[in-house]
Design goal:
The chain is about 35% helix and about 0% strand. The chain is mainly alpha-helical. Helix 2 runs antiparallel to helix 6 and helix 9 packs across helix 12. The chain has a two-stranded antiparallel ribbon. The N terminus and C terminus are likely disordered. The chain is globular and about 60 Å long. The two termini are about 35 Å apart. The protein is built from 13 helices and 2 strands, in the order αααααααααβαβααα. It folds into 2 domains: about 200 residues, Cytochrome c-like domain (Cytochrome Bc1 Complex, Chain D, domain 2, Orthogonal Bundle); about 120 residues, Cytochrome c-like domain (Cytochrome Bc1 Complex, Chain D, domain 2), CATH 1.10.760.10.
């Protein structure tokens, strides 16, 4: 992350200068009933134009050094915005050191990484895979990326519409702001467990009902709330697992002790599991870090409850998918 850190300061300094003109009122699609409204940074208000730009950028491989990776290479919608791999290899072939986390309801998450409590906003987090150097992921050179995007007439129109105060400038700080805005719309709220919490007792099977009760006793001290996370870092006991290599070269005391509680929304489709992706099933992940809590647990029921976290409509929501070919902003509607 050495290279990303100076850009974090750039984002903080520049976002206010590229904020959108006009109303900052945003109506959240699919907001869970009773859920608090996500906090929107004052210097990065939400608009449809900005979200559309962020969605386009999220799926664009031109943001990586060699044009082979997009944000979506690691965050695949059908897999709960994970990618099904143990770790992700970057554009130079360097292996990552953490399993990819999902993005469902990421607008409510803070902090945002497995082990760095300082990364608290989506604007900060986006720079880590884009420009970070430990490890290198997308390996983007901001100047090169800006030149690529500015050469595209569609992107020039989209940036002008999303950031009218910028005078049509294409800038990396605005690209990051737009990606963060799109990520705040990645909302999951229609799983069987969501319907159960909304009052539909029939939404859960009999097994899942029993599993819910067991989960509340054995797991909810850390996996709490609608997304089953307390967003805190905990020691989870995986460091001493024999035969496990964590990949970073650090000793277990530094590398594998304290991690943020991962949300369990869509957990059945976000494997492999744990911070290093070495658990090949949800059951293995449970046994690896919570064996002491399993003495009186009916594991099939607990797994049925976790299966009920799968939000199938979310995994197929066209508003979050790769945008169709063609420019989202035509010349006639472009803002100059």
């Amino acid at each position: 992350m050495k290279r990303a850190r100076p850009l974090l300061m750039l984002v903080a300094l520049c976002l206010s200068g590229s904020a959108l003109a006009g109303s900052t009122v945003w109506h959240w699609p699919g907001l869970p009933p009773g859920a608090p409204t996500p906090v929107i940074p004052a210097d990065n208000p939400m608009t449809e134009a900005k979200v559309a730009l962020g969605r386009q950028l999220f799926y664009d491989r031109r943001l990586s050094r060699d044009r082979t990776m997009s944000c979506a290479a690691c965050h695949v919608q059908a897999k709960g915005f994970t990618n099904g791999a143990r770790i992700q290899f970057g554009v130079t072939g360097e292996p990552g050191i953490r399993n990819v986390q999902g993005l469902a309801n990421v607008a409510w998450r803070s902090p945002l990484t497995w082990a760095d409590p300082k990364v608290k906003t989506l604007e900060q987090q986006a720079l880590v895979p884009l420009t970070g150097s430990h490890p290198i992921e997308m390996g983007a050179d901001p100047d090169v990326v800006v030149k690529r995007l500015a050469a595209d007439a569609c992107y020039r129109r989209m940036f002008a519409k999303a950031f009218p105060a910028s005078g049509g400038r294409v800038a990396m700080v605005d690209a990051v702001a737009a990606i963060a805005a799109f990520e705040r719309t990645i909302i999951s709220a229609s799983s069987p467990y969501d319907r159960y919490r909304a009052g539909d007792a029939a939404a859960l099977s009999a097994d899942a009902h029993r599993g819910a009760a067991q989960f509340a006793t054995a797991c909810a001290s850390c996996h709490a709330g609608p997304d089953l996370t307390d967003d805190k870092l905990h020691y989870v006991g995986t460091a001493a697992t024999a035969g496990i290599s964590y990949g970073s070269g650090l000793p277990p005391a530094d590398d594998a002790e304290h991690f943020r509680t991962p949300p369990l929304r869509n957990v059945a489709v976000t494997g492999p599991w744990l911070h290093d992706g070495t658990a090949r099933s949800v059951e293995e992940a449970i046994r690896r870090h919570a064996a002491a809590q399993l003495a009186d647990v009916e594991l099939p029921a607990l797994l049925a409850f976790l299966d009920a976290q799968t939000d199938t409509p979310f995994l197929r929501d066209p508003r979050l998918s790769d945008p169709a070919a063609g420019c989202a902003v035509r010349k006639a509607t472009a803002t100059r």
